[in-house]
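Sample log: AcrR family transcriptional regulator.
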Amino acid sequence: MTRTPTPGRRERKKAATRQALSAAALRLFLERGFDRVTVAEIADAADTAVSTLFAHFPGGKEALVLGHGDERAAALTSAVRDRPEGTPVLRALRDFLATRGPFRPEPDPQHRRVTALVVGTPALRAYARALWTGSEAALTRVIAEETGRDADDLSLRLLARYVLEIPDLAGTEPDPRAALDTAFTHLQRGWPDL
């Protein structure tokens, strides 16, 4: 049995600082709005320096809410690679997206407030879209690996891009989950073998 090593003191302290910054930012954004909060106010609320904030979140204020693209790319590729046997790639991607952001079934009130903040704030919405589309190469590569196709196949790159645009397009519809299903219905027509 392999044990996961326990993070050292330094790593625990970094994680605690990141959590304090993120929590302070989210609290302030929800209280006053994203555009009415400065990074200096966030750093002060978390009892850190502005330079510390940027050391942990080089993406700035947007990253405090949405993280960075590496986490998203890893989750997407895992959704495809680790899907149950016999599950089509498109079904695995649809099921994955159904657990994210505005598509989550019956989100708690805090999650609804954060989703509304992201959708209603142009800078956050643009950053979220950039995080999703920034995963295009990784998603294309894993779909190619899982289907035995060439990663340079334009069809797979198109599919990956379309899938990654769904959160921005369908997530702002009055019924995001229905819009998610509609989007995947159309994708399945274009890629019936996936």
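Observation: The longest helix spans residues 9-32.
Observation: The mean pLDDT is 90.
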